[in-house]
Request: fold
Amino acid sequence: MYKEVSLTEHLHEYFGFDRFKGEQEEAIKNVLEGNNTFVLMPTGGGKSLIYQLPALLMEGTAIVISPLIALMKNQVDSIRGFGTADNIAHFLNSSLTKAAIQEVKEDVLAGKTKLLYVAPESLTKEDNIEFLKRVKISFYAIDEAHCISEWGHDFRPEYRRIRPIVNEIGPSPVIALTATATAKVQHDIQKNLGILDANIFKASFNRANLYYEVRPKIKPEAQIIKFIHQNHGKSGIIYCLSRKKVEELTETLLVNGIKALAYHAGMDAATRSSNQDKFLMEEVDVIIATIAFGMGIDKPDVRFVIHYDIPKSLEGYYQETGRAGRDGGEGKCITFYSYKDIQKLEKFMHGKPVAEQEIGSQLLLDTVSYAESAICRRIILLHYFGEKYEQDNCGNCDNCLNPKEQIDASKELVIGLKAIVEVKEKYKAEHITNILVGKKTAAIKSFRQYTLDSFGAGQGYDEHFWNAIFRQAMIAGFINKDIENYGLLKITEKGHAFLENPTTFMLVRNHEYKEEGDSSEAYGAPAGATSGDPTLFAMLKDLRKRTAQKLNLPPFVIFQDPSLADMSIQYPTTMEELQKMHGVGQGKARRYGKEFIQLIRQYVEENEIEHPLDMVVRSVANKSKLKVFIIQSIDRKIPFEDIAAAKGLEVKDILTEVEAIVNSGTRLNIDYYIDMVLDKEPQEDIFEYFREAEDDLIETALAELGEDEYSEEDMRLMRIKFMSDMGN
Reply:
């Protein structure tokens, strides 16, 4: 088996370490004794050593089953770095030529190779199975074993075929290793691999050096750029869910002077590998990646991990954040959260088998619960993995350092639950929210739901509040979404009990998760118009009023309140900087900007204000293909329904994009479409209303002109026409 020398001496001989971490030594002894082993250790806990050291000491070759080619290469290079001969470790996968595969097989059969890394797909090939039958196998190590479980965050069906193939090749002890597994996932792994008898070695999931923070997803690019500039020269990873967003964000960071590279599965293998190496060799500071990046990457000094999009599960989140601060030093984990992203992930699940949808839905609910909670992030994370955190305040997460305000919303929850009952549990949250705030949408009109007791019962609050009520009621177990029926809200037994006997229901209030580009923020709603510098904001409003009077236009046509608010925060003093402000594009800046820039420049000089240049984010030219597509489609007079269908969107989404285009100063002629949906007389009435109006709020316009006469869509279309004709 192995020489009677202490394991610590072997550890030093092969790896240069003087002592083991945590339960490493006990786990290694268990492997050396030929037992099945289950290892659950967080990223950076030293899992790899648990199979690497025994493999070097035992007779035969250890077969290491690993999911990623990049991970295998990294591990093999690492082992070769400790040894004297390259053939001590090899990998066998689709990236090798026939000649290279033959060379690997010869080294293994000659007994020169102690660790052979194999992808699960390669393991299933008949010629590889026949080859491995001729090899003396010391043990099988299944790395990233959570891939076996459908409840895991990175399920791979081929992983569930490992046990039958192992039986065919010839049984040997099995080691399963993972950084993230709940009790449910752990049992699933052991059962599938046939190692329910395995000795289990678990390390604590608490990474005390990691700081956890969840931020509202408002202008995330600007927040990210500012954060990276403040942490200049530090290594970081940014995770996005889509390849497209990876590419866009990489471009944005590059034009803002940040050394960054992209990494995703759509790139060719050579580029991916090169980008990964440049990150490891510190030629670039930041990698922007899909979740394909980072598994097993041994870079100890990653100082921040940012999630541009919230992950699909807390296991995925924990593993990805775990790539920060592996050397025990600083590690900042910042996540941008918008419930819209959760809804997108829910949409992706539609059409999948019901069992898969149910699992995915539960994992997402756990993620929402984490994001919207007011309690210590560590308590939630460790509880999720079955570990109790004894302290109330960790002192290293946003909720502990800046406690959130909570209010008792039991009365409001009763109103919400009654509305679900009144519509016989046949609608989604969005529709029920519209009923509560008294919004006469087309669907509510057609079903005459404005006659319900619940209609307008929640008018004291906006849609954001009611959406938060429903989400947090879901987290608390009072309601759930019917997966098979497109997410209709159903009341649970616990919810019915609450209705009969209401108790305290604490709602996290001061973390307002507004969506990016939310219309309430973009069109003069009070929440979107809070100014940074109240004196400058007032001066800008006066200038806007004078300009409007001179041009005989309503003030909101010049610049809307959120645009002035942004100016009062960021102090733009050049035309280029002004174009980066909220709702200000090239056209508007050129037409009205000169006097505003002069006023701000003078104000900055007189008050000796330090101009925060880092706040101004440079955007990539022609960034939005959707906007270009919409402008071209409108030029060709294509109906909005067809434009929306071509992009898999709804008409209201196209309206929001068109509003943003027009408000930024681009002139669009949508008369052809308005003439299709609205007669000339009502067009004139609405146009005249906006000419005389004090603000451009749709709610005010509907109240003035009559909600029974016009729809919200009518008003939005005419507001677009008015802004385009009069302002651009």
The chain has four domains: 7-202, 210-337, 519-612, 625-727.
